[in-house]
Amino acid sequence: MKFTGTKDYVATDDLKVAVNASIVLERPLLIKGEPGTGKTVLAEEVAKALGAPLLTWHIKSTTKAQQGLYEYDAVSRLRDSQLGDARVSDISNYIKRGKLWDAFTHEKRPVLLIDEIDKADIEFPNDLLLELDRMEFFVYETGENIKAKLRPIVMITSNNEKELPDAFLRRCFFHYIKFPDHETMTRIVDVHFP
Asked: How far is the C-alpha of 67 from the C-alpha of 70, rounded, in Å?
């Protein structure tokens, strides 16, 4: 697997090196840059170029790390128990899989995009350290351990709105996408408007 850019995405040499290094080293690629420099589109193009499925987790200010793993819907289970629903006896009916769970159990090695991580609470990146490092997590409600069959290609974007914790940064391969120079901008315009 090697990313060399695509016909729709002009990747600079240093960006290609960063993407390929993160794939080979199996470390998350943290991509920072100004809004509009192509961070999110990069993940889409990497997935397209490698023929890999793309799973996207858009982060908001209210997003919690646990939502990326799974969520347990206790309210629905309580309601179903009051209505006498037979599904209530199997707790797994009330577990909603998150994007990391989907990425860990995918049949083909996926590209997992964690988009705009800096929008979340400051503790959000730290809450994902263990899961991204070991590529596994435990589901307490069902007692099962979810471990990645194939280590996903993890790409994380940040608009640099807030600083990320040092422990998180140490586990990532980092690349800053600079605003394109005149020559690169000309190539980008030519791709989209020949």
From this structure: 5
